[in-house]
Design a protein that fits this description.
Layout (H helix, E strand, L loop, with lengths): L21 H14 L5 E2 L16 H8 L3 H5 L8 H12 L3 H6 L3 E7 L1 H12 L6 E5 L5 H8 L3 E5 L15 H12 L4 E7 L12 H17 L4 E7 L11 H11 L8 E8 H4 L8 E7 L2 H18 L6 H11 L1 H32 L11 E5 L3 H10 L2 E2 L1 E3 L2 E5 L8 H12 L1
Parallel strand pairs: 1-10, 3-4, 5-6, 6-7
Antiparallel strand pairs: 2-8, 7-8, 9-12, 11-12
Helix pairs in contact: 4-13, 8-9, 9-10, 13-14, 14-16, 15-16
């Protein structure tokens, strides 16, 4: 294809959109290997599969959707979302800490979005100035860059893990984070931080309680020190309901307020929520952006802005999952049944992760720390080479910036040892 093809039709930004998605490209390679008759291992896709390779579906959610009234499938949802779903979104974000946070004076709002990606877009479009840098970990979900660049934003990074031995237990590099945040505050009047925690994609790392508190205190200190700089901390909670501490962030926020930390007026905390993984409705594109702040007027303004942004972008988020899932959770029986099935799926991941850790230790593979969620990670300077060598063993993983992502969500338990063996062979 000519490099200037379409130059007379596409604007300059559109012409920068090149290449194919790495994850789906490697998934296609796995599928081709299977088509050719290979006994291949799929560690590529980011959807939870049963051990027989079929898509894992929470049957309680599936049954609820299948009996939804026709009008709840066909009708538009309100532009900001169904009220019952918006209320549920706040509870899914805060869990058992929601009531305490409200009693402590925190106001909350939610806007329904087409999946967690829609929530990320709302944040990118509204909480930073065009040309600003958004602060990310150096290991992050690749599409973040697309959401940011599409909104005229750039990004800065800090290391995923600290190098100092005494800080490693918290699984956060506070020193470098503070340095990068300070640098942004010196050059921008708004700073936004995206933190995918718990159950980080692509590594499976989760911050400890100490790590969360250190991180939050750092942001609050920065906001207090730089009172003319707006601070937004976005928690990407796409996988949080599969984590050991699903509502750890709400607990940390509550503890910080109870310990007497004055909440800076220039600090907003917001959660990007996704029902794709937690309720296994990937294709129904249902999520929400949930924001909390002590000033009700700030929250009211954010609610208006997010609703207008959604209207101007996707109109209204799909209705059927909003209706059925909020109705399901409205009864004790429905919520408990969903939770029981969610726990079964979570245990698939826990068992696979433990098996991978054991197998990698047996073969001397230096797997990164990994705790929760869908993925594990091998840090490496030449991830393409490692992935290619694994593919020669018909084990298909995903090479990303700085390492190889292992999709535990897709690998059957019986095939986990093959992943470790292939990685060991590739590293020789």
């Amino acid at each position: 294809m000519e490099p200037n093809a379409g130059a007379g039709l596409l604007n300059p930004y559109a012409q920068t959109k090149v290449g194919n998605d790495t994850i789906f490209g490697w998934w296609a390679r796995y599928q081709e290997a299977v088509k050719q008759g290979a006994d291949a291992v799929n560690g590529t896709i980011g959807a939870l599969l049963e051990d027989d390779g079929s898509l894992a579906i929470n049957q309680v959610v599936d049954e609820a959707i299948r009996v939804a009234p026709a009008v709840e499938i066909a009708a538009y949802a309100p532009l900001k979302g169904l009220p019952a779903f918006l209320d549920l979104s706040k509870t899914l974000a805060m869990g058992e800490h929601r009531e305490a946070l409200e009693e402590l004076g925190m106001s909350m709002t939610a806007t329904a979005t087409p999946g967690g990606s829609g929530a990320l877009y709302l944040a990118a479009a509204n909480f930073a100035n065009r040309g600003d840098k958004v602060l990310l970990r150096d290991r992050h979900w690749g599409p973040y860059k697309g959401f940011l660049s599409g909104c005229g934003l750039e990004y800065a990074t800090y290391p995923l893990l600290p190098s100092a031995e005494e800080a490693k237990h918290a699984f956060v590099d506070i020193k470098n984070f503070k340095d990068e945040l300070s640098a942004l505050c010196s050059s921008q009047d708004k700073v936004m931080i995206w933190l995918n925690d718990p159950a980080h994609n692509p590594t499976g790392v989760s911050l400890t309680a100490d790590g969360r508190m250190a991180f939050l205190e750092s942001v609050m200190e920065s906001a207090s020190t730089n009172e003319h700089v707006g601070h937004t901390l976005l928690i990407d909670a796409a996988y949080h309901l599969y984590a050991e501490e699903p509502h750890g962030w709400a607990e940390t926020i509550r503890e910080a307020i109870e310990e007497g930390w004055p909440w800076p007026e220039n600090l907003l905390l917001t959660f990007a929520m996704s029902l794709s993984k937690s309720h296994t409705v990937y294709g129904l594109r249902t999520g929400a952006l949930v924001s909390i702040h002590p000033d009700a007027e700030v929250i009211e303004k954010i609610e208006t802005v997010m609703g207008v942004t959604g209207r101007q972008t996707w109109s209204a988020a799909p209705r059927v999952a909003q209706y059925t899932i909020s109705k399901m959770h409205s009864s004790k029986e429905g919520g408990e049944a969903w939770g029981k099935e969610r726990d079964r799926l979570k245990n698939l991941l826990v068992t696979r992760r433990n098996r991978l850790k054991e197998s990698c230790a047996k073969h001397g593979v230096p797997l990164n720390p990994t705790h929760d969620g869908f993925f594990a990670w091998l840090e490496h300077d030449d991830p393409e080479s490692v992935a290619e060598k694994c593919a020669q063993e018909n084990v298909f993983l995903v090479p990303l910036t700085g390492g190889v992502r292992i999709g535990l969500c897709a690998v059957p338990l019986a095939q986990i040892p093959r992943v470790a063996e292939a990685l060991a062979q590739a590293l020789k």
